[in-house]
């Protein structure tokens, strides 16, 4: 399954956020409170990896 979508970077309270649609969170079992690692992997690319989840 290929998921391709465009998301906008938003500013809220002095921080920047990118939202993840609920359908994608459900697919990858992402939940509120989970922690993620962002790793630069190339020009204009990041890898997002879940490192810790709420129990």
- Overall geometry: globular
Strand numbers in spatial order across the main sheet: 1-2
User: CA-to-CA gap between the ends?
Assistant: 28 Å
- The total tally of domains equals 1
Total number of helices: 1
State the oligomer: single chain
Broad structural category: mainly beta
Question: Which regions contain 5 or more consecutive residues with pLDDT less than 50?
Answer: none
Q: Mind telling me the C-alpha Rg?
A: 13 Å
Task: Give me the strand/helix succession.
Answer: EEHEE
| Average predicted confidence as pLDDT | 90
How many beta-strand elements?
4
- Biggest β-sheet: count, sense, barrel? 2 strands, antiparallel
Percent helix range: 10-25%
Give the percentage of residues in beta strands. Answer: 35-45%
What does this entry look like structurally?
The chain has one domain. Helices cover about 15% and strands about 40% of the residues. The protein contains 1 helix and 4 strands. The chain has one helix at about 20-30; strands at about 10, 15, 35-40, 45-50. A two-stranded antiparallel ribbon has the order 1-2. A two-stranded antiparallel sheet has the order 3-4. A hairpin with a 2-residue loop joins strand 1 and strand 2. The chain is globular and about 25 Å long.
């Amino acid at each position: 399954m290929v998921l391709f979508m465009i998301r906008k970077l938003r500013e809220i309270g002095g921080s920047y956020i990118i939202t993840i649609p609920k359908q994608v969170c459900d697919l990858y079992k992402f939940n509120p409170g989970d922690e993620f690692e962002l790793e630069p992997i190339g020009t204009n690319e990041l890898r997002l990896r879940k490192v810790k989840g709420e129990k």
